[in-house]
Amino acid sequence: MIDTRELVDPQLLPFLDALPGGAVNRHTLPARRERSDALILAQLPDDLPVLVEEQYLSGPTGPASLRILKIQRHDLADKAPALLHCHGGGLVMGKPESSLPTLRHMAMTLGVVIVSVDYRLAPEAPYPAAIDDCYAALEWMHDNAKALRIDSQCIGVTGESAGGNLAAALCLMARDRAGPPIAYQNLVYPMLDDRADATDNPVVGQFCWTRESNRFAWNAYLGATAHDAVSPYAAPARESDYERLPPLYLSTGALDLFLDENIRFVQALAAAGVAVEVDIYPGAFHAFDVAPDADVSIRARARRLDAMRRAIDGVGD
């Protein structure tokens, strides 16, 4: 048995030791959600001149039922690039606020208008609740581009972990429905395949997000469909046709449970003629980029921003 702790980047070890232990399951989920909320409240405000606005949109469950956070610079230019963000949390926990430090920095650095979706969570609201919420937000952004002062042809999608699932699924759904054009997809260790437990890679999935947590989250999200034919809109790795999708940037860690499925996803899109770029970080486990001071985390955050900047600059070329 390989001691995977020896493979962890030494600068990540203090962050790893501070993470909550044990798997996410139906018994621990309430406490994990409470811990997530507490971490949000503990975030220190920064001095970036960025506006964060809460709004309620008409969503799949009715008028003013879909909560979003809109993040933008105070000195926003007209026809600014836009970004739809889906937060992480295994589809069973999390809020847009959990990503606010990252999103505020993105908005300030790139001059983008960011809409982060407070999508419904499983198991209370299984598939397709989350993706339906995110698609409604995408349509709202496109239909209200003028009022939002954004370029309707330069809307990208991004997300971490479960949010990466939703961002990838949005690209499939928008293509299949001839919906709003998506300029690019920027996925960070995305949760793409409900069959991830099948990986025989012995060094992945030991830290932060384990096979047990992943199995619980997928069963919660898929609900009654868990043992039926799973839709690619629920698990994008199930898709058989990846043609005509937006350019992809994907980053993941070499110790992340999702490493193998992420690599297969990149390969499948490349084989379908989609422009792809991938970064794999040695010694990095799931959510490693949240560690504030580790060199590998700083590098990953910078590379993600750079990929977005290049994608935005390439729109219309």
Provide a short characterization of the protein structure.
The chain has nine helices and eight strands.
The overall strand count is 8
- Regarding CATH, which class? Alpha Beta
Oligomer: single chain
How many domains is the backbone divided into?
A: 1
Please tally the helical runs, counting DSSP H or I stretches of 4 or more residues.
Answer: 9
The CATH architecture assignment turns out to be 3-Layer(aba) Sandwich
Q: Please name the CATH topology.
A: Rossmann fold
Q: Note the main sheet.
A: 8 strands, mixed
Low-confidence stretches: none
- Biggest sheet, spatial arrangement of strands: 1-2-4-3-5-6-7-8
Percent of residues in helices comes to: 25-40%
Q: Overall pLDDT, averaged?
A: 94
Q: Give the CATH H-level superfamily.
A: Alpha/Beta hydrolase fold, catalytic domain
Derived structural class: alpha/beta
Question: In percent, how much strand structure appears in the residues?
Answer: 15-25%
Describe the structure.
- One of its GO terms (molecular function) is hydrolase activity.
- The protein has nine helices and eight strands.
- The protein has helices spanning 13-18, 29-42, 100-110, 129-143, 145-148, 162-176, 211-222, 259-271, 295-314, and strands at 50-59, 62-73, 80-86, 113-117, 150-160, 185-188, 248-253, 276-281.
- The radius of gyration is 18 Å and the shape is globular.
- The chain has an eight-stranded mixed β-sheet with strand order 1-2-4-3-5-6-7-8, sandwiched between helices.
- It has one domain: 3-Layer(aba) Sandwich (Rossmann fold).
- The protein has 317 residues and is an alpha/beta fold.
- Helices cover 35% and strands 19% of the residues.
- Strand 7 (248-253), helix 8 and strand 8 (276-281) form a beta-alpha-beta unit.
